[in-house]
Recover the amino acids of this structure.
């Protein structure tokens, strides 16, 4: 029996019990969690979001890893993450080798912005390998709750490596007029090229595009959609990095002088339809000041590595300590990371 600890390491994390383990392919497993009634409100999630798991490590005590929820909040009883082994991937191999029903895992609440604003939209979903995990959550949710058409292009090495193959067949049969699934097998067709991806996506230029997969696949999809003239505002991508910090430990507030407080900017932050007017000292990040005011701001790593706190600057100007996870086009469109942002102008307006 595996247990990371008897109590959580911070105020935001909880211990969840593994209620199911499913072998999806020879190198991918799904882990289902039982969520107690008293924690259900904290584990309400949107399609495409992820969980952050605390994984024990002999060298560092623990590591934090983000895994997408492959379940749908509308069609599945319990949240489920799906993990595929990666070469020398400590976290993925530990999960696949060790977790069993009855084990406990320390988990942060759902997070992430890789989710449709409107499930009635027509969706073009492009996935490769384990990139299917957030994509199938979106797919199942849109079919269950929405009215639009859903097109999935799913690339894998071979037929044996197709995660959720049976489930996708069943959904295609259940929604023949709304769901089109196209599989791309590298063993038969080679790696999908930019022209081939553009040809596959060309009939769906008006659709909202969501992509997730290895870096080379994502780069090729981006170039294909750019060549087709699809605006970046219609394209969402999900990228996960191994988190270097410890998001499970509560952060220490930055100490401010009277001079720091006097030089603070003013920010209007819109979150979940509510606007908060706050004083924003320039040494503090946006996430810091929102947490200090007891606002339930979305965040996970506070290192600029996961994208959970991505938001949009509508007015004013900010600077970021670390913005590597954002594309240049995202930054041009006003996207910033709340955990890395400091005010430059005296007034800033931000929307989550």
């Amino acid at each position: 029996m595996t247990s990371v600890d008897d109590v959580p390491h911070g105020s935001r994390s909880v211990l969840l019990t593994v209620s199911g383990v499913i072998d999806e392919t020879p190198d991918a497993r799904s882990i289902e969690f039982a969520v107690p009634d008293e924690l259900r409100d904290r584990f309400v999630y949107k399609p495409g979001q992820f969980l952050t798991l605390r994984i024990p490590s002999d060298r560092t005590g623990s590591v934090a890893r983000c895994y997408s929820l492959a379940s749908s909040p509308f069609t599945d009883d319990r949240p489920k993450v799906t993990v595929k082994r990666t070469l020398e991937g400590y976290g993925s191999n530990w999960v696949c080798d060790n977790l069993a029903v009855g084990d406990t895992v320390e988990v942060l609440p759902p997070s992430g912005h890789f989710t449709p604003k409107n499930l009635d939209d027509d969706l073009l979903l492009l996935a490769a390998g384990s990139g299917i995990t957030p994509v199938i959550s979106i797919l199942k949710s849109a079919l269950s709750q929405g009215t639009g058409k859903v097109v999935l292009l799913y690339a894998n090495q071979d037929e044996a490596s197709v995660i959720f193959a049976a489930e996708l067949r069943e959904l295609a049969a259940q929604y023949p007029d709304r769901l089109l699934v196209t599989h791309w097998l590298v063993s038969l067709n080679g790696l999908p090229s930019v022209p081939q991806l553009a040809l596959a996506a060309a009939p769906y230029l008006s659709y909202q595009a969501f992509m997730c997969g290895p870096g080379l696949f994502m780069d090729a999809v981006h170039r294909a959609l750019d060549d087709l003239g699809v605006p970046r505002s219609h394209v969402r991508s999900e990228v996960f990095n191994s988190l270097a910090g410890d998001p499970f430990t509560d952060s220490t507030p930055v100490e401010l002088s009277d001079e720091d407080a006097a030089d603070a900017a003013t920010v209007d932050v819109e979150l979940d339809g509510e606007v908060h007017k706050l004083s924003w000292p320039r040494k503090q990040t946006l996430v810091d000041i929102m947490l200090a005011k007891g606002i339930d701001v979305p965040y996970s790593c506070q290192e600029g590595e996961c994208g959970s706190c991505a938001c949009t600057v509508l007015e004013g100007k900010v600077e970021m300590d670390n913005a590597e996870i954002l594309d240049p086009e995202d930054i041009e469109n006003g996207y910033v990371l709340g955990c890395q942002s400091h005010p430059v102008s005296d007034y800033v307006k931000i929307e989550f």
Remarks:
- Residues 269 and 276 are 5 Å apart (CA to CA).
